[in-house]
Amino acid sequence: MRFAVRFAIALSVVAALVDTGLAQQRRPSTQQQQPQYRRPSGTPQAQRPPQQPTQRVANRPAQPQATQGGQAGEVTKQEVLTTIFSQVVIGGLKNPCGVAVQPKSDEVFIADSGAGQIVKLKDVPGAYELLPVITGFPTDTYGKNPTYEIGPMGLAFLNKYTLVVGEGGLPEGQDVVRVFRVPHAGSIDAGDVLQQLGPLRASAGSATGEGNFFGALATATDLFVTCNGDSSNGLIAKAPIQDGEVGELVPFINSRQVTGAARPAAIALGRQGQLVVSQMGDLHTPNDSLLTVYDPKAGGLLMNVATQLHDVTGVAISPQSGRIYAVDFSWMAPEEGGLYRLDLVKDGPETICKPTLLMSLDRPSALAFAPDGTLFITTFGSHTAEQKGGLLVRIYNDSKL
Q1: Residue 124 region by backbone torsions, left for phi larger than 0, else alpha for psi between -120 and 50, else beta
Q2: What is the predicted pLDDT for the residue at 49?
Q3: Residue 200 in contact with residue 207, Cβ under 8 Å?
């Protein structure tokens, strides 16, 4: 009887997630338009971001069958009624790996990973600035052909003044997750922690030990982080939260065993409380990223679908529409990187993912929504002549995504 009840609950959760995607689909216009960087009304002319160069999306090979779920739909370009309103806010970042919006203040915090620091945006038109908040994180290299310098990675707020930072700057089995009290002003050192979680040493589920904590998510009761330390495997770790304290961090889901794909990366909270996770897969295998949905309590797999994207490093769910958005870093083909909307639709008895390209971006790494629907995206690369280094891009909440 208990199994039957749990199975019925799981089916209802998946149905809710799919129904949200179906209900929010808009009828496209008959004329296809390329997203551009546009100055929203009221922004001074001097701050108008340059227009993004037009880029073509190459045809991609067929996606192999996922462990569960149907084939991914063909990648399409967005057909919108109006142009997407977006802004390159600021450059100068070094391999930013995480972005989070602080509760109540709505300030934007960024893991300026290659620089070994956490910064926040001074959001003043005409005087945008990145202010150091936590400095002195160790850095290391990540990936292959090419490799990138990284340090702090996943970010999650427990509350307005408590920030969780997943690290990637030490060898496998030595990275930790740190919990900080965010200073009101100025900056603190990375060693000035409230708590330190981990490390996760080598074990039966991780030959090298864990680290490269790419994604972080805090709910009212638990902290979840994705682990990329063992590049041939992949774990999601979990720690309980009680009375503002975070408990022991332990392995929760072996995502490689469950999905058949390595490198869990992004993690977000679904509208029904599900864990929505991206599996990057192998960095040099095309179109092998998956979107998976898990039960946050028991860890059971609720959905696993192919995305037809290369390396999904960021996932966010709109607080207004419930739609799922993702960024594809596209390690092996940076020209195909960008922001995508992922629509989950029924295809007979199966659920498939239909990705729609909204905006081409140079190695996008993470994204996060503000409560009003404004979307912030970080990139490793520049796609403007004026802004060098990694970028912070803002898409305004009046955009038709």
Answers
A1: beta
A2: 38
A3: no
More confident residue, 56 or 393: 393
Q: Record the tokens describing residue 345, joined without a space.
A: 């639709």
- Nearest-angstrom CA–CA distance, 271 and 16: 8
Tokens 């922690």 correspond to 193
Residue 155 to residue 218: CA distance in whole angstroms: 9
For residue 77, what pLDDT is reported?
Answer: 58
Of 257, 318, 314, 324, nearest in space to 289 by CA = 314
Residue-wise pLDDT tens digits, 216-267: 999 999 999 999 888 778 899 999 999 989 999 999 999 999 999 989 999 9
Give CA separation, 119 vs 41, 245, 301, in Å.
28, 24, 35
DSSP 52-116: PPP-PPPP-PPPPPPSSS-PPPPPEE---SS---EEEEEEEESS--EEEE-TTT--EEEEEGGGT
20-27: Cβ within 8 A, 24+ apart: 20/271, 20/321, 20/322, 20/323, 21/322, 21/323, 21/324, 21/342, 21/343, 21/344, 21/345, 22/343, 22/344, 22/345, 22/346, 24/321, 24/322, 24/323, 25/343, 26/81, 26/400
3-state SS, residue 310:
coil
Contact status, residue 94 vs residue 114, Cβ threshold 8 Å: yes
* Residue 61 buriedness (CB in 10 A; 0-12 / 13-18 / 19+): exposed
Task: State phi, psi for 194 to the nearest 5 degrees.
Answer: -80, -45
The pLDDT tens digits for 90-135 are 999 999 999 999 999 999 999 999 999 999 999 999 999 999 999 9
